[in-house]
Design goal:
Layout lengths: L1 H6 L13 E3 L5 E3 H10 L4 E2 L2 E2 L6 E3 L4 E3 L1 H6 L7 E3 H30 L5 H4 L2 H78 L3 H19 L15 H8 L18 H21 L1
Antiparallel strand pairs: 1-2, 3-4, 5-6, 5-7
Helix pairs in contact: 6-7, 8-9
Length: 288
């Protein structure tokens, strides 16, 4: 009775057919009023001019998946383009056969490329292959650790050298600055003494004040005039960039850090710069 009931039931309202009954070419039957309701709700949905059966399975071309007719009429595929399952199957099967040929061509190309590799790579037992892979990974890890450790050591050494050069530079700077200040004071002393003597002569308050200041200034004048040589005129005295650069790169080949083909700092220019720095440092040492 259940089987008979399913045959005599409308798939839309799930009740026994209410006459009149419509028989579609796909062998699915419906109450006329149920189909008319679907037509009204879906604004006469059809595919290629034909009504879309709500029971027949379809192929959703938008989502590339099979769906039932109800999903097309009432579900999330309402606005999607659909096709018959049989048509989609035929078209996809032909396309899939072409895809297989493309994969075959790719496989044959890979096989030709693999012919240049040692045959041992493809004849080793699985455990030996795994060992080779493990050894490769281990060597890569060890090399990476070596690079990190040695790189850190190099950076530490360079930082230490930089700190030493900075301390040396600071001492040199202070020493040369004090020397320049001393020479400047020696050159300034006669002018200052002259101004003091002139002011005393022209603007002394009384005889006692004049005599006191006169004694002090005469002593200053005596020390100034008894100087063995005239104060040395200060000359331009700078810190040698070349010298410090030479110390910084001692034992290093800076051309190794110049990217090949870089127009802004070509390797030849780096070599020439390093050569000039070396020559300049030697000339300065000879002058000293």
């Amino acid at each position: 009775m259940e089987a008979l009931g399913s045959v005599l039931s409308c798939p839309v309202c799930t009740e026994l057919f209410t006459p009149p009954v419509l028989f579609l070419s796909c062998s699915h039957n419906f109450c006329k009023q149920c189909l008319e309701l679907i037509l009204v709700c879906q604004h006469c949905i059809h595919v290629d001019g034909q009504f879309c059966c709500p029971v027949c399975r379809k192929m959703c071309l938008s989502d590339e998946e099979p769906i039932c007719g109800m999903c097309k009429l009432f579900g999330e595929h309402m606005s999607h383009q659909v096709a018959k399952i049989s048509d989609a199957y035929t078209e996809r099967k032909v396309s899939f056969a072409k895809d297989i040929q493309l994969v075959l061509q790719k496989s044959e190309s890979a096989a030709q490329a693999m012919q240049v590799l040692p045959k041992e790579m493809f004849t080793l037992p699985p455990q030996d292959t795994e060992k080779l892979i493990g050894d490769l990974s281990t060597s890569a890890d060890d090399t990476r650790a070596m690079i990190d450790a040695f790189g850190d050591s190099l950076l530490s050494g360079i930082k230490c050298r930089i700190a030493t050069l900075k301390r040396q530079l600071e001492l040199e700077h202070v020493s040369k600055l004090e020397k320049l200040q001393s020479v400047a004071q020696e050159l300034e002393a006669p002018r200052q003494l002259y101004q003091q003597m002139k002011a005393l002569l022209q603007h002394h308050v009384n005889a006692v004040q004049f005599l006191h200041e006169h004694k002090r200034l005469k002593a200053e004048m005596k020390r100034l005039m008894e100087g063995s040589v005239s104060p040395q005129v200060p000359t331009k005295d700078t810190v040698s960039i070349k010298c410090y650069f030479q110390e910084l790169i001692k034992g290093m080949d800076i051309t190794a850090f110049v990217p090949p083909g870089q127009e802004q700092c070509p390797k030849e220019e780096a070599v020439r710069t390093q050569s000039q720095m070396t020559t300049g440092a030697k000339l300065e040492e000879g002058a000293l």
